[in-house]
Amino acid sequence: MNQRNSFTFKKAREDGFTLVELSVVLATVVILAVLLLPAIAGTKPNSQAFQCLENQRQLTLSWQMYAADNGDLLPPNDYPYLTSYAPAGANQVKLKNWVVGTMAEGADAGDAPYLSGGVSELLSPNTLLSPYITNRSVYHCPADNYVDPYAGNRVHVRSYSMNSAVGTIFNSSSAIGGGDPRPLGSPVTGGWLSGASYVGGVNPTWLTYGKMTSFTKPGPANTWVTMDENPRTINDGSIAISAAASSGATYLIDYPTGLHGGAGTMAFADGHIIVHKWQDPRTYTVTINGHGNTIQSSTHVFPDDADCFYLAPITSALR
Fold first, then answer.
1. How far is the C-alpha of 317 from the C-alpha of 100, rounded, in Å?
2. What is the reported pTM?
3. Where would I find the H helices in the chain?
4. Between 23 and 240, whose confidence is greater?
5. DSSP code at position 175
Protein backbone atom coordinates (compact mmCIF):
# COMPACT_ATOMS: atom_id res chain seq x y z
CA MET A 1 0.00 0.00 0.00
CA ASN A 2 1.44 3.34 -1.03
CA GLN A 3 1.65 5.94 1.69
CA ARG A 4 0.91 9.47 0.61
CA ASN A 5 1.68 12.73 2.33
CA SER A 6 -1.39 14.43 3.69
CA PHE A 7 -1.95 18.17 3.19
CA THR A 8 -4.66 20.26 4.81
CA PHE A 9 -5.90 23.26 2.88
CA LYS A 10 -7.59 26.11 4.72
CA LYS A 11 -10.34 28.01 3.03
CA ALA A 12 -9.22 31.44 1.94
CA ARG A 13 -10.70 34.29 3.87
CA GLU A 14 -13.61 35.77 1.96
CA ASP A 15 -15.12 38.21 4.41
CA GLY A 16 -12.55 41.07 4.02
CA PHE A 17 -11.29 43.26 6.88
CA THR A 18 -13.24 43.71 10.07
CA LEU A 19 -14.27 47.13 11.33
CA VAL A 20 -11.70 46.87 14.13
CA GLU A 21 -8.88 46.11 11.67
CA LEU A 22 -9.85 49.05 9.47
CA SER A 23 -9.96 51.33 12.52
CA VAL A 24 -6.43 50.26 13.51
CA VAL A 25 -5.10 50.98 10.00
CA LEU A 26 -6.80 54.38 9.91
CA ALA A 27 -5.45 55.28 13.35
CA THR A 28 -1.93 54.34 12.25
CA VAL A 29 -2.18 56.57 9.18
CA VAL A 30 -3.40 59.48 11.31
CA ILE A 31 -0.54 59.04 13.80
CA LEU A 32 2.04 58.98 10.99
CA ALA A 33 0.52 62.13 9.49
CA VAL A 34 0.70 63.91 12.85
CA LEU A 35 4.35 62.93 13.22
CA LEU A 36 5.35 63.93 9.69
CA LEU A 37 3.44 67.17 9.18
CA PRO A 38 5.61 69.31 11.51
CA ALA A 39 8.70 68.28 9.55
CA ILE A 40 7.28 69.39 6.22
CA ALA A 41 4.98 72.20 7.32
CA GLY A 42 5.40 75.27 5.20
CA THR A 43 7.80 73.59 2.77
CA LYS A 44 6.98 72.92 -0.85
CA PRO A 45 8.37 69.54 -1.81
CA ASN A 46 9.22 69.38 -5.50
CA SER A 47 11.74 67.74 -7.77
CA GLN A 48 14.36 70.40 -7.03
CA ALA A 49 14.04 69.94 -3.27
CA PHE A 50 14.23 66.16 -3.63
CA GLN A 51 17.33 66.44 -5.82
CA CYS A 52 18.87 68.81 -3.28
CA LEU A 53 18.22 66.24 -0.53
CA GLU A 54 19.81 63.54 -2.67
CA ASN A 55 22.87 65.73 -3.25
CA GLN A 56 23.19 66.27 0.48
CA ARG A 57 22.84 62.53 1.09
CA GLN A 58 25.72 61.79 -1.30
CA LEU A 59 27.90 64.52 0.22
CA THR A 60 27.29 63.23 3.75
CA LEU A 61 27.93 59.62 2.81
CA SER A 62 31.18 60.60 1.06
CA TRP A 63 32.23 62.67 4.08
CA GLN A 64 31.62 59.68 6.36
CA MET A 65 33.51 57.36 4.00
CA TYR A 66 36.49 59.73 3.98
CA ALA A 67 36.63 59.56 7.79
CA ALA A 68 36.37 55.77 7.72
CA ASP A 69 39.28 55.59 5.26
CA ASN A 70 41.44 58.08 7.20
CA GLY A 71 41.51 56.81 10.75
CA ASP A 72 38.38 58.74 11.83
CA LEU A 73 39.91 62.07 10.75
CA LEU A 74 37.56 64.50 9.00
CA PRO A 75 38.62 66.30 5.80
CA PRO A 76 39.99 69.87 5.99
CA ASN A 77 37.58 72.79 6.06
CA ASP A 78 39.91 75.81 6.16
CA TYR A 79 40.17 76.86 2.51
CA PRO A 80 41.25 80.55 2.18
CA TYR A 81 37.91 82.04 1.29
CA LEU A 82 38.94 84.49 -1.46
CA THR A 83 41.79 82.47 -3.00
CA SER A 84 41.06 81.16 -6.49
CA TYR A 85 42.01 77.55 -7.19
CA ALA A 86 41.92 77.89 -10.99
CA PRO A 87 43.82 78.25 -13.18
CA ALA A 88 46.61 75.88 -12.21
CA GLY A 89 49.32 77.41 -10.08
CA ALA A 90 52.12 76.59 -7.69
CA ASN A 91 49.94 77.37 -4.67
CA GLN A 92 47.62 74.44 -5.38
CA VAL A 93 49.79 72.08 -3.36
CA LYS A 94 48.69 74.08 -0.29
CA LEU A 95 45.01 74.00 -1.12
CA LYS A 96 43.64 70.63 -0.10
CA ASN A 97 40.14 70.78 1.30
CA TRP A 98 36.91 68.78 1.40
CA VAL A 99 36.15 70.87 -1.70
CA VAL A 100 38.53 73.37 -3.28
CA GLY A 101 37.66 76.68 -4.88
CA THR A 102 35.76 79.81 -3.92
CA MET A 103 32.53 80.99 -5.46
CA ALA A 104 33.75 84.57 -4.96
CA GLU A 105 36.09 84.22 -7.95
CA GLY A 106 34.88 83.95 -11.54
CA ALA A 107 37.15 81.10 -12.62
CA ASP A 108 36.19 78.92 -9.68
CA ALA A 109 32.50 79.83 -9.80
CA GLY A 110 32.45 78.78 -13.44
CA ASP A 111 34.38 75.61 -12.60
CA ALA A 112 37.38 76.33 -14.82
CA PRO A 113 39.50 73.22 -15.41
CA TYR A 114 42.34 73.03 -12.91
CA LEU A 115 44.55 71.37 -15.53
CA SER A 116 44.86 71.70 -19.29
CA GLY A 117 43.27 68.28 -19.57
CA GLY A 118 39.91 69.85 -18.77
CA VAL A 119 39.23 68.20 -15.40
CA SER A 120 36.81 70.04 -13.10
CA GLU A 121 38.26 71.46 -9.87
CA LEU A 122 35.40 69.70 -8.10
CA LEU A 123 36.99 66.45 -9.26
CA SER A 124 40.56 67.52 -8.51
CA PRO A 125 42.53 65.21 -6.20
CA ASN A 126 42.76 68.20 -3.85
CA THR A 127 38.99 68.07 -3.48
CA LEU A 128 39.30 65.31 -0.93
CA LEU A 129 35.80 63.95 -1.47
CA SER A 130 36.52 63.46 -5.19
CA PRO A 131 37.34 59.72 -4.86
CA TYR A 132 33.78 59.22 -3.60
CA ILE A 133 31.90 61.76 -5.75
CA THR A 134 32.59 61.50 -9.47
CA ASN A 135 29.68 63.63 -10.66
CA ARG A 136 30.29 67.35 -10.14
CA SER A 137 26.56 68.15 -10.31
CA VAL A 138 26.23 66.71 -6.79
CA TYR A 139 27.69 69.97 -5.49
CA HIS A 140 24.99 72.15 -7.08
CA CYS A 141 21.42 72.67 -5.88
CA PRO A 142 19.11 72.71 -8.94
CA ALA A 143 17.20 75.68 -7.45
CA ASP A 144 20.37 77.78 -7.38
CA ASN A 145 20.22 79.77 -10.63
CA TYR A 146 21.65 83.02 -9.29
CA VAL A 147 23.75 84.81 -11.92
CA ASP A 148 26.60 86.26 -9.87
CA PRO A 149 27.91 89.68 -10.90
CA TYR A 150 30.80 89.26 -8.45
CA ALA A 151 31.93 86.08 -10.17
CA GLY A 152 31.92 86.94 -13.85
CA ASN A 153 28.12 86.75 -14.21
CA ARG A 154 28.24 83.00 -13.78
CA VAL A 155 25.89 80.56 -12.07
CA HIS A 156 27.79 78.88 -9.27
CA VAL A 157 28.90 75.27 -9.67
CA ARG A 158 28.63 74.74 -5.91
CA SER A 159 25.73 75.54 -3.59
CA TYR A 160 26.70 73.68 -0.40
CA SER A 161 29.00 74.64 2.44
CA MET A 162 30.17 72.94 5.63
CA ASN A 163 29.62 74.03 9.23
CA SER A 164 32.64 76.14 10.27
CA ALA A 165 32.82 74.08 13.49
CA VAL A 166 33.38 70.86 11.51
CA GLY A 167 36.59 69.64 9.87
CA THR A 168 40.34 69.88 10.20
CA ILE A 169 43.08 72.32 9.18
CA PHE A 170 45.40 72.04 6.21
CA ASN A 171 46.07 75.34 4.46
CA SER A 172 46.19 77.29 7.72
CA SER A 173 48.66 74.92 9.41
CA SER A 174 52.26 76.11 9.87
CA ALA A 175 53.30 72.80 8.30
CA ILE A 176 52.03 74.24 4.98
CA GLY A 177 53.15 77.77 5.65
CA GLY A 178 50.04 79.03 7.47
CA GLY A 179 49.86 80.82 10.78
CA ASP A 180 48.31 78.04 12.90
CA PRO A 181 51.10 76.33 14.92
CA ARG A 182 49.09 73.15 15.35
CA PRO A 183 49.85 70.10 13.17
CA LEU A 184 47.91 68.99 10.12
CA GLY A 185 44.67 67.29 11.04
CA SER A 186 43.94 69.48 14.07
CA PRO A 187 40.31 70.62 14.40
CA VAL A 188 39.25 73.88 12.75
CA THR A 189 39.35 76.96 14.97
CA GLY A 190 35.68 78.00 14.70
CA GLY A 191 36.48 81.69 14.72
CA TRP A 192 32.95 82.89 13.91
CA LEU A 193 31.10 80.63 16.36
CA SER A 194 30.89 83.42 18.94
CA GLY A 195 28.86 85.52 16.51
CA ALA A 196 29.54 89.09 17.59
CA SER A 197 33.09 89.15 16.19
CA TYR A 198 35.83 86.88 14.89
CA VAL A 199 37.93 85.08 17.51
CA GLY A 200 41.55 84.44 16.51
CA GLY A 201 43.13 81.10 17.32
CA VAL A 202 41.18 78.16 18.71
CA ASN A 203 37.78 79.32 19.94
CA PRO A 204 37.93 79.07 23.74
CA THR A 205 34.17 78.88 24.18
CA TRP A 206 32.77 76.58 21.51
CA LEU A 207 33.65 73.04 20.48
CA THR A 208 35.00 72.18 17.05
CA TYR A 209 34.99 68.69 15.57
CA GLY A 210 37.98 67.12 13.82
CA LYS A 211 37.00 63.46 14.10
CA MET A 212 33.78 61.48 13.81
CA THR A 213 34.20 60.42 17.43
CA SER A 214 34.43 64.05 18.57
CA PHE A 215 30.70 64.69 18.13
CA THR A 216 29.99 64.22 21.82
CA LYS A 217 27.99 67.42 22.34
CA PRO A 218 25.32 68.05 21.13
CA GLY A 219 25.76 64.65 19.44
CA PRO A 220 25.90 63.49 15.80
CA ALA A 221 22.11 63.52 15.38
CA ASN A 222 22.00 67.12 16.62
CA THR A 223 24.99 68.64 14.81
CA TRP A 224 24.49 69.79 11.24
CA VAL A 225 27.40 69.36 8.83
CA THR A 226 26.37 70.86 5.47
CA MET A 227 23.63 73.16 4.23
CA ASP A 228 22.86 74.96 1.00
CA GLU A 229 24.29 78.43 1.45
CA ASN A 230 22.86 81.66 0.12
CA PRO A 231 24.42 82.39 -3.30
CA ARG A 232 25.13 85.98 -2.21
CA THR A 233 27.39 84.93 0.67
CA ILE A 234 28.92 81.64 -0.48
CA ASN A 235 32.68 81.71 -0.99
CA ASP A 236 34.85 78.85 0.27
CA GLY A 237 33.53 75.49 1.48
CA SER A 238 32.87 76.76 5.02
CA ILE A 239 29.72 78.55 6.18
CA ALA A 240 30.00 80.67 9.33
CA ILE A 241 26.94 80.25 11.56
CA SER A 242 26.99 81.48 15.15
CA ALA A 243 26.60 79.05 18.06
CA ALA A 244 25.74 81.98 20.33
CA ALA A 245 22.22 83.34 20.56
CA SER A 246 20.54 85.22 23.38
CA SER A 247 17.62 87.56 23.81
CA GLY A 248 18.26 90.64 21.71
CA ALA A 249 21.49 89.28 20.24
CA THR A 250 21.27 86.87 17.34
CA TYR A 251 23.90 86.97 14.62
CA LEU A 252 24.22 86.15 10.95
CA ILE A 253 27.65 86.04 9.33
CA ASP A 254 26.99 83.80 6.32
CA TYR A 255 23.39 83.20 5.30
CA PRO A 256 21.41 80.04 4.52
CA THR A 257 19.43 79.86 1.31
CA GLY A 258 15.66 80.10 1.14
CA LEU A 259 15.40 78.84 -2.42
CA HIS A 260 13.03 75.99 -1.55
CA GLY A 261 10.00 78.12 -0.78
CA GLY A 262 11.68 79.87 2.14
CA ALA A 263 13.35 76.64 3.24
CA GLY A 264 16.78 75.05 2.89
CA THR A 265 18.31 71.60 3.23
CA MET A 266 20.61 70.50 6.04
CA ALA A 267 22.60 67.29 6.60
CA PHE A 268 23.62 66.05 10.05
CA ALA A 269 26.64 64.11 11.28
CA ASP A 270 24.63 60.91 11.77
CA GLY A 271 23.59 61.01 8.10
CA HIS A 272 20.00 62.24 8.26
CA ILE A 273 18.95 65.12 6.00
CA ILE A 274 16.07 67.55 6.37
CA VAL A 275 14.30 70.35 4.55
CA HIS A 276 13.97 73.10 7.14
CA LYS A 277 11.49 75.97 6.81
CA TRP A 278 12.99 79.26 8.02
CA GLN A 279 10.72 81.29 10.26
CA ASP A 280 12.24 84.73 9.73
CA PRO A 281 12.77 86.06 6.17
CA ARG A 282 15.82 88.01 7.43
CA THR A 283 17.62 84.67 7.74
CA TYR A 284 17.87 84.20 3.97
CA THR A 285 17.36 87.73 2.66
CA VAL A 286 20.77 89.25 1.97
CA THR A 287 20.71 92.98 1.31
CA ILE A 288 24.43 93.27 0.54
CA ASN A 289 26.72 91.26 -1.68
CA GLY A 290 30.40 90.54 -2.03
CA HIS A 291 30.94 87.01 -0.72
CA GLY A 292 32.54 88.14 2.51
CA ASN A 293 34.29 91.28 1.25
CA THR A 294 31.64 93.32 3.01
CA ILE A 295 29.55 90.76 4.86
CA GLN A 296 32.15 89.19 7.13
CA SER A 297 33.74 92.52 7.98
CA SER A 298 30.44 93.63 9.49
CA THR A 299 28.50 90.90 11.26
CA HIS A 300 24.77 91.43 11.05
CA VAL A 301 22.87 91.59 14.31
CA PHE A 302 19.23 90.69 13.85
CA PRO A 303 17.59 90.84 17.30
CA ASP A 304 15.60 87.75 18.22
CA ASP A 305 15.80 85.93 14.89
CA ALA A 306 13.96 82.67 15.59
CA ASP A 307 16.13 80.81 13.09
CA CYS A 308 19.32 81.81 14.91
CA PHE A 309 17.85 80.36 18.11
CA TYR A 310 17.19 77.16 16.16
CA LEU A 311 20.64 76.98 14.55
CA ALA A 312 22.82 77.91 17.52
CA PRO A 313 22.44 74.71 19.61
CA ILE A 314 22.84 72.42 16.59
CA THR A 315 25.96 74.21 15.29
CA SER A 316 28.26 73.60 18.28
CA ALA A 317 28.23 73.28 22.07
CA LEU A 318 30.04 74.90 24.96
CA ARG A 319 33.42 73.40 25.81
1. 27
2. 0.84
3. 19-40, 47-69, 106-109, 306-315
4. 240
5. T
